Q: What sequence folds into this?
C-alpha cells in the first residue's frame, strides 16, 4: 500500500476507535464539568462495560442460534452493559466520592486510584488475567473503496456512537437538566446560587457518563475481538487526553477530541510502530497542557491559578 | 496640576477604567477611583455588584480585561502581576469566606503571612546559618506581637481550623498584617459577627489605621461601613454609581434605589 | 498528662531506633534482613514523596520514574565509566533533582489535578522508554553487572550479604530525617504547607507558588535519586519491571496511610505496607484488590492517615461559647 493508501485506511480505522474514545471522553468531561473532579476510575468503568457485554453474551449464547438472531441481541447486550455501568458509576459517586466533597483535593484522587485497582482486580479474579475472546456479534463483511477496506462493524460502531452522541447533545441543549449542567460547567458559584441541585446533577453526570463508557466498552470488545482487564487503564488515559484536547468540561470538545486522538493514534501506528502507540497519548497530553491547557474548543474551567 | 508634595495627598491606590467581563457579563465596567493614604475607605454595593471581583483584580487573582491599577507612585499597573508580587509590593487582603490554613497553627498562619518579609531559602533551611536563625526569631516575635494585638496570644499553638469563628476572622486579618502592608483589603470582615464583635472590629480597624495602614473594606453591614469609613464608594452592576462621605452616600437617591428590591441589610 | 505525652513522644521513637539498630545483630536470618533492606528503601521513597504530596500537597502519580532515573543513572555511569558507588550517589541525586524539576514545569500554572496527570504520564513514558530504548537501557532485560559499593577505609567490598546495605540504608534514612525535619520547620516548609492547605491564599500571602512547587519536586527527586542508586548498587541488576505504576501507587499509599506531611507517619506507613505482605503471604493474590479497598476506606474514614493531624471542623453556624 502506498503512503496515501495507508493514510486513508488509518483514517477510517482511527475514526472508528476515535468514536469509542469520544464516548469515554464524554464521561470525563461531563463529570469534570459539574464536579470539578477527574474521575480516574472512569477507564475501569469502560472496561467493566466490555466484560458485562461479554458476560451477557456468555449467558445468553444458548438462546442464540444463527447469525440473524445474533444481530437482534446486540441492542440488548448494549443495554445490559450500559445499565450495569451506570449503576456502578452511580454507586461510586454516591458512596466513594460524595462523602469527600469537603475533603482536601488529594482525597478523591486517591479514592479513584483505589477504585481503579479494585475494579481491575475484581475483573481479573472473576474472568482471569488472560485476554478473553469477545464475539464480533455480527458477521463481519468487508467493503472495498478503492484500496481501502471498510467493514460493516466499523460502520455499525460509528453509527451507534453518533446516535448516542446526538441524543446526548439534544439532552444537553434542550432539557432543563442539560442546561443546568452546562450552567454548572460555566460557573459553579453562580449556578449554585441559582438554586441548582448540584448533588443530583453530579449523579446524573456520572450515570450518563458511565453508560456511554459502557457502550464504548461493548464496541471495543466487538471491534478488537479480545478484551483484557488492563484495557481500561490505557483507553481511559487516551480518552482523558481526548477530553483535555477538546477542552475539559466542553462536551462537543470531548467528541472531537476523541476522534482526533483515535485518528492520530491510528496514523502513528500506521506510519511508525505500534509500540509507542500508547505513550503517544501522553505526549499529546503534555503538549496540550504546555501550550493550550484550555484545549482546542476552549474550556471555561481552566484558568490561571 | 497641583504638585503632590504631601504624602497624605498622594493616592495610595488609583483605579483607572478597570473593566472585567466573565463570558459576556460585565463584572466591572470602567471603574475608576482613588484611595488616599491613611484613610479608611468603604466599598459597598448590592450582591453581585463586583466588589470582590475588584479585590481580585487589585490583588492579581483576576486579570482585568482593560484599565489600570496604580499603587503608590509606581508607574506600572498592577493589573497583570501574580498575586505574590502584589503582596510583595505592599498590599494584603482577607477573604469573604475565611481562607485560613486550617491544619496549621495560628502562629504558623501568621508566619506564612510574613513570608514575603523573609529571605531564607532552601540553603538557609538546610544549614541554618546565624542570619537565618535571627530572621526566624524576628518573624516569630513579630507574629507573637500581632497575636497579642488581636488578643489571640493564648491561641498561638492551636490549629486555625479549631478556633472559633470570631477568632478566625481576627486571625485572618492578623495574617494579612504580617506582611507589613501599606494597603489592607478587607472583604466582609464583619460577616457573621454579633454586635459586640462588630464593635471590637471597628476599634481594631481604627487601631490598624493608626499604625499607618490604609484600609479598603467591603462590607454589607451598613452601620459598620458608615461608622468606620471616611469615604465610601458604591458599585452597582459593576459600575461606580456614587462616592463620597458616608453621610452623602446614605442620602444619595441612586444608592438607595440600587438597594431597594435587592439584598439590603441595615 | 502533657509531660507524659512529651516523654512518650521522645521515648517511642528512641526505643524504636534502638531496636532498628540492633535488629540485624539479633535476627540473623538473611532473608529477614533482606526484607528489611527493601523496606528501608521504601522508607526512603516514602520520605521523598512525602515532601511533594504530604508537605506541598501536590499529588504525584509517577514517583517510580524518579526512582528509575536514580537507579539507571548509577547503572549507566558505572557500567560505562566505572564510576564508583559513592560518587554515583551524588550523580543520581542530581539527575533525580533535575528530573523532578523538569516534571514540575509543565503544570506549574495549572490545578493539582493536571499536575497529577502529567506525573502519571511521565511515569509511563519513562517506563516505556526504558523498555524500548534497548541499546541504552538494555530493554526489558535491563542492565546487569552493576558494581556494589565498596569502602576504602576500612577496606570492604559490599557483596550479596544484606547486612552492610541494611546499615547504609539506615544511615541514609537518619540523615534524611534530620534534613527533612529542618526543612519542615523552615520558611520553605511553611510555604509548602500553605501551598497544600490553600494554594490561592498562599499566593496572596506572598509565596511564589511556582518556586514552592519546583523546590518540592526537586527535593523529592533528590531523595528518589539516592534511593534508586542504592537499589541499583544492591541488586546489581535492574530492569523496568521494578519501576512501574504499581510502585508509584504503593509509595503514595504509604504516605497517605502514614499521614500526609508526618515524617514518622510515612516511615510507619512504609514499614507497614512493605512488611505486611510478608506476614500475609497466603493473601498474596488478593494483595492489589485489598490494597485498592484499603485506599478507598482510608479516604472515607481516616483521610489524615495514622499519624496525621486534622482540624476538627467547626460549624460556622454553631458559635463557640468559650473564648
A:
Amino acid at each position: 500500500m502506498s503512503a496515501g493508501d495507508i493514510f486513508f485506511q488509518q483514517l477510517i480505522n482511527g475514526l472508528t476507535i476515535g468514536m469509542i474514545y469520544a464516548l469515554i471522553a464524554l464521561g470525563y468531561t461531563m463529570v469534570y464539568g459539574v464536579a470539578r473532579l477527574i474521575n480516574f476510575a472512569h477507564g475501569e468503568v469502560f472496561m467493566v462495560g466490555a466484560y458485562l457485554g461479554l458476560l451477557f453474551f456468555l449467558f445468553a449464547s444458548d438462546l442464540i442460534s444463527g447469525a440473524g438472531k445474533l444481530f437482534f441481541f446486540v441492542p440488548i447486550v448494549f443495554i445490559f452493559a450500559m445499565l450495569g455501568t451506570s449503576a456502578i458509576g452511580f454507586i461510586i459517586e454516591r458512596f466513594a466520592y460524595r462523602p469527600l466533597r469537603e475533603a482536601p483535593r488529594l482525597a478523591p484522587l486517591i479514592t479513584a486510584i483505589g477504585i481503579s485497582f479494585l475494579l481491575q482486580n475484581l475483573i481479573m479474579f472473576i474472568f482471569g488475567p488472560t485476554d478473553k475472546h469477545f464475539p464480533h456479534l455480527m458477521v463481519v463483511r468487508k467493503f472495498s473503496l478503492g484500496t481501502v477496506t471498510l467493514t460493516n462493524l466499523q460502520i455499525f460502531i460509528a453509527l451507534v456512537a453518533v446516535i448516542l452522541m446526538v441524543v446526548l447533545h439534544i439532552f444537553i441543549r434542550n432539557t432543563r437538566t442539560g442546561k443546568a449542567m452546562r450552567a454548572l460547567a460555566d460557573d459553579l458559584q453562580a449556578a449554585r446560587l441559582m438554586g441548582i441541585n448540584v448533588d443530583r446533577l453530579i449523579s446524573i453526570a456520572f450515570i450518563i457518563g458511565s453508560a456511554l463508557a459502557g457502550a464504548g466498552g461493548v464496541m471495543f470488545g466487538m471491534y478488537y475481538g479480545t478484551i483484557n482487564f488492563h484495557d481500561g487503564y490505557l483507553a481511559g488515559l487516551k480518552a482523558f487526553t481526548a477530553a483535555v484536547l477538546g477542552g475539559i468540561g466542553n462536551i462537543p470538545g470531548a467528541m472531537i477530541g476523541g476522534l482526533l486522538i483515535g485518528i492520530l493514534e491510528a496514523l502513528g501506528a500506521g506510519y511508525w510502530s505500534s509500540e509507542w502507540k500508547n505513550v503517544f497519548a501522553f505526549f499529546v497530553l503534555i503538549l496540550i497542557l504546555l501550550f493550550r491547557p484550555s484545549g482546542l474548543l476552549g474550556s471555561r474551567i481552566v484558568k490561571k491559578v | 496640576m497641583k504638585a503632590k508634595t504631601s504624602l497624605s495627598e498622594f493616592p495610595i491606590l488609583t483605579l483607572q477604567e478597570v473593566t472585567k467581563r466573565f463570558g459576556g457579563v460585565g463584572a466591572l465596567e470602567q471603574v475608576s477611583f482613588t484611595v488616599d493614604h491613611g484613610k479608611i475607605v468603604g466599598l459597598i454595593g448590592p450582591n453581585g455588584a463586583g466588589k470582590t471581583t475588584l479585590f481580585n483584580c487589585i490583588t492579581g487573582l483576576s486579570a482585568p480585561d482593560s484599565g489600570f491599577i496604580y499603587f503608590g507612585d509606581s508607574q506600572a499597573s498592577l493589573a497583570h502581576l501574580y498575586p505574590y508580587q502584589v503582596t510583595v509590593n505592599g498590599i494584603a487582603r482577607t477573604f469573604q469566606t475565611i481562607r485560613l490554613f486550617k491544619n496549621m497553627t495560628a502562629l504558623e498562619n501568621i508566619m506564612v503571612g510574613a513570608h514575603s518579609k523573609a529571605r531564607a531559602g532552601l540553603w538557609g533551611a538546610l544549614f541554618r546559618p546565624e542570619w537565618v536563625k535571627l530572621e526566624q526569631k524576628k518573624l516569630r516575635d513579630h507574629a507573637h506581637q500581632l497575636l497579642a494585638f488581636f488578643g489571640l496570644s493564648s491561641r498561638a499553638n492551636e490549629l486555625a481550623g479549631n478556633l472559633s469563628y470570631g477568632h478566625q476572622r481576627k486571625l485572618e486579618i492578623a495574617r494579612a498584617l504580617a506582611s507589613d502592608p501599606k494597603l489592607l483589603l478587607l472583604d466582609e470582615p464583619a460577616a457573621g459577627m454579633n454586635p459586640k464583635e462588630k464593635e471590637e472590629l471597628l476599634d481594631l480597624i481604627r487601631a490598624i489605621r493608626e499604625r499607618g495602614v490604609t484600609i479598603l473594606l467591603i462590607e454589607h453591614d451598613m452601620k459598620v461601613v458608615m461608622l468606620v469609613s471616611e469615604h465610601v464608594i458604591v458599585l452597582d452592576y459593576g459600575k461606580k454609581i456614587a462616592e463620597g462621605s458616608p453621610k452623602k452616600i446614605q442620602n444619595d437617591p441612586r444608592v438607595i434605589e440600587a438597594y431597594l428590591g435587592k439584598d439590603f441589610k441595615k | 498528662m502533657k509531660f507524659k505525652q512529651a516523654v512518650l513522644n521522645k521515648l517511642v521513637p528512641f526505643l524504636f531506633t534502638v531496636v532498628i539498630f540492633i535488629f540485624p545483630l539479633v535476627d540473623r536470618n538473611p532473608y529477614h534482613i533482606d526484607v528489611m533492606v527493601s523496606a528501608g528503601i521504601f522508607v526512603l521513597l516514602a520520605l521523598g514523596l512525602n515532601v511533594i504530596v504530604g508537605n506541598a500537597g501536590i499529588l504525584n502519580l509517577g514517583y517510580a520514574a524518579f526512582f528509575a532515573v536514580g537507579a539507571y543513572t548509577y547503572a549507566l555511569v558505572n557500567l560505562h565509566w566505572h564510576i564508583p558507588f559513592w560518587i554515583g550517589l551524588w550523580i543520581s541525586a542530581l539527575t533525580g533533582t533535575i528530573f523532578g524539576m523538569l516534571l514540575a514545569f509543565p503544570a506549574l500554572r495549572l490545578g493539582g489535578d493536571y499536575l497529577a496527570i502529567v506525573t502519571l504520564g511521565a511515569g509511563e513514558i519513562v517506563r516505556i522508554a526504558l523498555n524500548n530504548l534497548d541499546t541504552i537501557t538494555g530493554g526489558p532485560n535491563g542492565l546487569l553487572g552493576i558494581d556494589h559499593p565498596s569502602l576504602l577505609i576500612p577496606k570492604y567490598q559490599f557483596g550479596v550479604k544484606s547486612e552492610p546495605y541494611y546499615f547504609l540504608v539506615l544511615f541514609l534514612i537518619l540523615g534524611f530525617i534530620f534534613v527533612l525535619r529542618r526543612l519542615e520547620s523552615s520558611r520553605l516548609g511553611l510555604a509548602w504547607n500553605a501551598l497544600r492547605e490553600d494554594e490561592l491564599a498562599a499566593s496572596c500571602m506572598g509565596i511564589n507558588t511556582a518556586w514552592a512547587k519546583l523546590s518540592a519536586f526537586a527535593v523529592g527527586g533528590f531523595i528518589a535519586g539516592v534511593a534508586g542508586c542504592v537499589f541499583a548498587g544492591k541488586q546489581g541488576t535492574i530492569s523496568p519491571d521494578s519501576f512501574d505504576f504499581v510502585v508509584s501507587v504503593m509509595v503514595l499509599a504509604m504516605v497517605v496511610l502514614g499521614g500526609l506531611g508526618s515524617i514518622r507517619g510515612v516511615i510507619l506507613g512504609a514499614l507497614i505496607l512493605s512488611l505486611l505482605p510478608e506476614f500475609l503471604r497466603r493473601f498474596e493474590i488478593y494483595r492489589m484488590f485489598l490494597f485498592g479497598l484499603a485506599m478507598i476506606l482510608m479516604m472515607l474514614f481516616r483521610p489524615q492517615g495514622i499519624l496525621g493531624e486534622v482540624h476538627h471542623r467547626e460549624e460556622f453556624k454553631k458559635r463557640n461559647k468559650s473564648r
Residues 52 and 216 of chain C are 5 Å apart (CA to CA).
